[in-house]
Amino acid sequence: MAVHIRLARHGTKKRAFYRVVVSDGRSPRDGRFIENLGTFDPAVAKDALRLDRERLAYWQGQGAQTSHTLTRLLKAQSSTPAS
Q1: Which residues contact 24 (CB under 8 A, 6 or more apart)?
Q2: Rounded Cα gap, residues 70 and 64, in angstroms
Q3: How far apart are CA 29 and CA 6, in angstroms?
Q4: Interior angle at CA 72, CA 61 and CA 47, nearest 5
Q5: What's the number of CA atoms in the CB half-sphere (13 Å) around residue 5?
Q6: Which residues, 6+ apart, have CB-to-CB distance to 76 below 8 Å?
Q7: Residues in CB range of 50: below 8 A, 6 or more apart
Q8: What contacts 52, CB < 8 A, 6 or more positions away?
Q9: Nearest CA to 66 among 22, 11, 15, 14?
Q10: Angle, CA of 66, 72 and 73, to the nearest 5°
């Protein structure tokens, strides 16, 4: 079973809100998930990505792969200076 850490889309039309979830790779994008790790709200400029880093590290240690989009968001968040 391949486990992925990816974004699940929620919210209304033209007002997307995403949850960062751990799911089986065979599940649909908005389908069943194993664990909810956080949220991503692109409409909010500050603190758009809220994430439980401890659980993210745990799942990556278990072999879970992050999606390309989530990898890009994590790199962008780590490169921004904390103010």
Answers
A1: 1, 2, 3, 4, 32, 34
A2: 13
A3: 8
A4: 95
A5: 25
A6: none
A7: 38, 39, 40
A8: 37, 38
A9: 22
A10: 90
- Annotate 39-54 with three-state secondary structure: EECCCCCCCCEEECHH
DSSP type of residue 67? P
Cα dist. 9→16, 54, 68, 75, 79 in Å? 7, 23, 15, 20, 25
| pTM for the structure as a whole | 0.84
User: 49 - beta bridge partners?
Assistant: 40
**pLDDT tens digit string along 57-74?**
999 999 999 999 999 999
Residues 6+ apart with CB under 8 A from 77: 49
pLDDT band at 82 (very low <50, low <70, confident <90, very high): low
Q: Express as a percent the part of the chain with pLDDT over 70.
A: 95
